[in-house]
Amino acid sequence: MNATLTFLGSGTSMAVPTLGCPCAVCVSAYDPASPNRRTRPSVLVAYGGHNVVIDTGQDFQMQAVRENLSAVDAVLYTHGHADHVLGMDDLRPLSFALPEGLPLYADDATADVIERIFEYTFTKVDRYPASARVVLHRTATAAGTEIPLFGATFVRVPVMHGPSTIAGYRFGSAAYLTDMSDIPEESFALLENLDILVLDALRREPHPSHSHLAKSIELVERIGPKRAFFTHISHGLEHASTNASLPEHIRLAHDGLRLTFNISDSKDIVDSTDIA
Ligand SMILES: [Zn+2]
Ligand SMILES: [Zn+2]
Question: I want to staple 83 with a disulfide (CB 3.0 to 4.6 A). Which of 40, 182, 183, 214 is the partner?
C-alpha cells in the first residue's frame, strides 16, 4: 500500500528562528519560504484515505493549515516533551467529527504527561464540555510492540533520548526516530530493509540528549536504509550548505517535505514475493 510521509515540522524544541538569536540561519528563517524555517518536529503518515500524525507540538495548528490537513484518524506520541505534546488541544475541532473519539497512542510516561497537562480533557468530574474528544490508549514499551492502524502496523522502536528511553516508530518501509541520542542494540533488528529512515540530527556538536550530524551519518551507514532524512534540526545547520556536504542518500528534512513509500507490513511484502 502506497503511503506519503510529510514533515509537518523539522525543527528542534526551540524552533528556527530561535527567539532572540541573531545568527545568520535564524535571520534567514524569518523568510517564510526559507528551508531554514523549522517548526516543531512532527510527521503526517497518509495512506488508504487515513491520516496518522506522530506528535503534536506547539506548531501543530499552523502546520495543519499549511498542509490542508482537515482530518486526523489517530495520533502516536514519541514522548512527553513540550515540543511533542503541547499541540494536543489543537486536535479539538478534528476530534468533534469522530463519534468514537480520536485515538491517541502513548506509553505510560507520555500518557501521564498528557493527562496532567490537559487534565480538564480527561477528568471524569465536571469535564469541560468543549474539550478534545480523544481516547488515550496506553501502549507497551517493549521493542517491537505493534500498533495496528487502518491496515498498517506501527512498530515501537525504542531509542535513547538522554537518560530516557522513548518511542521511535517503524511503519512499512519507513522509520521515524526523532529525539534520539542513541539506539539500543535490540532496536537495530527492527530497522532492517528500510527505504526511508528519519533520524534526529540536532547540530554539528555533540549534545547529551540528541544525536549530532557525524553520529547520525554513522548510524545511517550502519542501518543501511535506501535514503535517510535528518530532523529535529537546530539553527546550527544551514539547509543548503549542510545538504551539499552530505552523501547523496542523506538529506536534511525541511518543513513540508513529502516522501512516498510502501507501508505494507514487511511480512506482507515477503508473502507477495513468495506468490510472485
Ligand atoms: Zn523534541
Ligand atoms: Zn525531547
Answer: 40
